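Hello, quick one for you while I still have it in my head. My current little project is about how a certain protein chain folds up. You're getting the sequence in one-letter code plus the fold written as tokens. Would you mind checking whether the tokens look sensible for this chain? Here's the protein in full, and shout if anything looks odd to you:
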Amino acid sequence: MRLSLPLLMLSVAAAGLCRGDDHEAAYRLRERQDILPLEELLRRAHLGADARILEIEREVLHGRHVYEIEYVDGNGRIREILIDASDGKILSEEEEN
């Protein structure tokens, strides 16, 4: 099976995110359909074809599950978005300095 570069990047990023108990917790949340699959959230985030993901972190913020995604955009700027894990809505977006 051959993976496209974006899918490969997603797989690597997800592997870095999913460690130990956090992986199990995310799996349970997906099984209960409390959160969307990470692949779907990244698709909804519209990071751009040239984006390179640096870090993905799942958190609970004010009672809602969110993903904090840090990436480099096509212009070389480091950006960070906060996305609601249940519906894919972007809650905030900022450029890192």
